[in-house]
Design a protein that fits this description.
Layout lengths: L6 E3 L5 E2 L5 E3 L2 E3 L1 E5 L11 H12 L8 H13 L10 E3 L5 E3 L4 E3 L6 E3 L10 H18 L3 E5 L4 H7 L2 E6 L2 E6 L2 E8 L2 H4 L7 H19 L3
Length: 224
């Protein structure tokens, strides 16, 4: 990627919220979002640092977030059973406590490094990078044991189909997966900045994202 002129940023850790291991009526509900890469000019970021980066964006207003994180917000609202246009980002737990949506999920990029056009977040990731990192993503998911995985980026589908252990497709955007006996639902979507679903006015949001994540949540809580 560097030889082709890309800017390369290595060692970018995952994000894991402090309330990731949630339950709904006693059923585990662990949500993981999988984008391609961070695309940010930061490197050697620990899990703690990457987590704080994401939590900081949760302190911003919805309009202040970038397209990606606005899409993540929509996805998490739906994944946790809120309306896509909900006016709250707080989850209420049965013990009376609450947490922000961003505290209740994990974000694990397919790539642990970013290769982008200089000065932009446009990916220049190579096939070698995707193949090399896919085994690390698989190992990460085996540890996290998600029940619902939401990928963001049509370019991930080919790699993820082999990596996630797809057993069968439910709809064009929803599949059942099995990683060594750990079953979960995978919802495959475009990236919010590419699929243009970072606004409530986007047709793709209402026509594809909303029904796909709602179906994924239903299956995940139904014990796939």
């Amino acid at each position: 990627a560097e030889k082709a002129g890309a800017s390369f940023y290595e060692a970018q850790g995952h994000m894991i919220g402090s309330c990731y291991d949630t339950h709904v009526d006693g059923t585990p509900h662990r949500v993981v979002v999988v984008p391609m890469e961070t695309g940010e000019p930061k490197q050697h970021r620990t899990v703690e640092q990457r987590t704080q980066d994401i939590l900081d964006s949760g302190e911003c207003t919805f309009g202040q977030r970038n397209q990606h994180m606005r899409g993540v917000t929509f996805a998490l609202r739906l994944a946790f059973g809120l309306p896509v246009d909900a006016d709250t980002e707080q989850l209420q737990f049965t013990d009376g406590s609450s947490a922000h949506l961003f505290d209740a999920y994990a974000m694990t990029n397919l790539l642990l490094c970013s290769a982008v056009d200089h000065g932009t977040a446009k990916s220049r990731a190579t096939g070698v990078m995707r193949k090399s990192c896919s085994r690390h993503l698989r190992a990460t998911l085996e540890i996290l044991e998600p029940t619902l995985v939401i990928s963001q980026g049509a370019g991930l589908d080919k790699t993820l189909t082999g990596t996630l252990g797809v057993t069968h497709n439910v709809t064009p955007n929803v599949a059942i997966c099995d990683l060594d006996g750990s079953r979960f639902v995978w919802v495959s979507l475009r990236h919010p900045s590419r699929g243009n679903w970072s606004s409530l006015k986007c047709d793709y949001l209402h026509e594809v994202v909303v029904p796909a994540i709602r179906r994924g949540r239903e299956l995940a809580l139904g014990g796939v």
